[in-house]
Design goal:
The protein is of the alpha/beta class. The protein contains twelve helices and 25 strands.
């Protein structure tokens, strides 16, 4: 089995596959549009594309979904780029990954020379790093998406009339997996271009959405904006992932008719690894047990995983393997097992900041801050926030006797960083603490800087 809208249309042509902008499309209609898009690609793509990719802006819209399906039918891997990525970042990705073409909505263009070393069977390349370190992407195969969807369907007890709301960006594996799961289950995706509280409520009620995927921030915003709204009975659950949730969120959501299922996953594992069962209790802080076929282990506090939905590897390949000799992948997350084999995630082992479901590497932000006038040193750290999980904060050391214009700092960051990577607060320090290796001590810096933080 593979990701194929054409095969799905043969099995259930008249079934509704997609709802977008108030219009419903059957599998047969999407298949016909996909085959037309395949002909359009054939007109611009060079011959002999084996091992190459096509880069595409991951918009949550009909055109992008059809292009995605078309490229899968053509067996061409898709490199997905976040819609909010600045132009400089997009340009860098194209230089590093050397795709054969670039797609943005209905716009398509060939790019001339292209790399040809991506393994057969690859469906997508999902970016996992930011703007300053070498960009890399997890190569996820058709087989991995199938295995992930089957394991998820077993845990979540899919039904034939299920409808999944997709408001997470399909440039991330959490949003893309909604598309792949529904395609493989021959069920309906309700596609939203972006998350908005009012559209969420409307879709759940009017489109009879049965499942939603949210980061904790999204659900918090819905509960805050609509304090008297109660979810209708056909909403079976809200799958929560992408960062730590407030411990009382499941209970507060439950009082409003929303059953939350905490989950743990990552790009390299094709989304879900562990998910709570449907009969979970509100006081369970874990992410549940591993999905069928997955193995999860903890060594030296680090969560490790392996299973049939793992990535093939990273691209570009630097010659090293992301897996150990026994096939285990080290996630970089810290965790423990509770209540048997239920996984509780404690946070990152490294310095990654998780804000609103987005991973932010401090070095990315520091490199931009250091381009601001009078900034001599910058140390970026995460600060706990009840809405975002964490927010990005920065401690700056200036040239002696100089000042800094906060508006200029904000403008500079906005030019090069996605909104999720923007520092929310900052402070000025005379000295940024260092560790014994001469590197910034983020823990000590956060302790010293937190009382001095001001909005940026």
């Amino acid at each position: 089995m593979r990701l194929s809208i054409v095969e799905a249309a043969r099995e259930c042509p008249s079934r509704i596959a997609l709802c977008a902008n108030g219009t419903r499309y059957t599998f047969a209609e999407l298949s016909a549009s996909t085959q037309q898009r395949m002909r359009e690609f054939a007109a611009i793509l060079p011959k002999g594309l084996a091992g190459s990719s096509v880069a595409m802006v991951g918009l949550n819209d009909l055109d992008t979904t059809v292009s995605l399906f078309a490229l899968w039918e053509l067996e061409i891997p898709v490199l997905l780029i976040h819609p909010r990525a600045p132009l400089a970042e997009r340009t860098r990705f194209l230089e590093v990954f050397q795709p054969a073409a670039f797609v943005n909505g209905r716009e398509m263009s060939g790019l001339g020379s292209f790399a040809q070393d991506i393994p057969d069977g690859t469906a997508c390349l999902i970016l996992t790093s930011g703007t300053t370190g070498p960009p890399k992407a997890a190569m996820l195969s058709h087989a991995a998406f199938v295995a992930s969807a089957e394991a998820s369907a077993t845990r979540l007890q899919w039904k034939e009339d299920d409808r999944w709301l997709a408001s997470l960006s399909i440039a991330h594996v959490g949003g893309l997996s909604i598309i792949t799961r529904c395609l493989l289950a021959r069920s309906c995706v309700v596609l939203h271009p972006r998350f908005a509280e009012n559209e969420f409520v409307r879709a759940v009620e009017e489109e009879r959405v049965t499942q939603v995927s949210l980061v904790p921030t999204m659900l918090e915003r819905v509960l805050e904006r609509y304090p008297r709204w109660r979810a209708p009975g056909h909403l079976r659950f809200a799958l929560i992932g992408g960062g730590p949730a407030n411990p009382d969120l499941p209970r507060r959501a439950g009082r409003r008719g929303i059953r939350t299922l905490l989950s743990y996953g990552l790009t390299e594992c094709c989304s879900q690894v562990c998910t709570q069962p449907l009969d979970r209790s509100d006081d369970d802080p874990t992410c549940g047990e591993p999905l069928d076929g997955f193995q999860v282990d903890i060594r030296d506090s680090e969560i490790r995983a392996k299973g049939p939905a793992m990535m093939t590897g990273y691209y570009p390949n630097d010659g090293t393997s992301a897996f150990d000799t026994d096939g285990w992948f080290g996630t970089g997350d810290a965790g423990i097992f509770e209540r048997g084999r239920r996984l509780r995630v404690l946070g990152r082992l490294d310095d990654v900041i998780v804000t609103g479901g987005e991973n932010v590497h401090p070095s990315e932000v520091e490199a931009i801050l250091l381009t601001c006038p009078n900034v001599r040193e910058a140390c970026v750290f995460g600060h706990q926030d009840p809405i975002w999980g964490q927010i990005v904060c920065a401690a700056l050391r200036l040239i002696p006797g100089a000042g800094v214009d906060p508006e200029h700092v904000k403008t500079t960051c906005a030019r090069y960083l996605c909104p999720s990577r923007m520092p929310r607060k900052f402070c000025i320090l005379d000295h940024i603490p260092l560790n014994r290796n001469g590197k910034h001590n983020r823990v000590e810096t956060a302790r010293v800087a937190t009382p001095l933080l001001q909005d940026l």
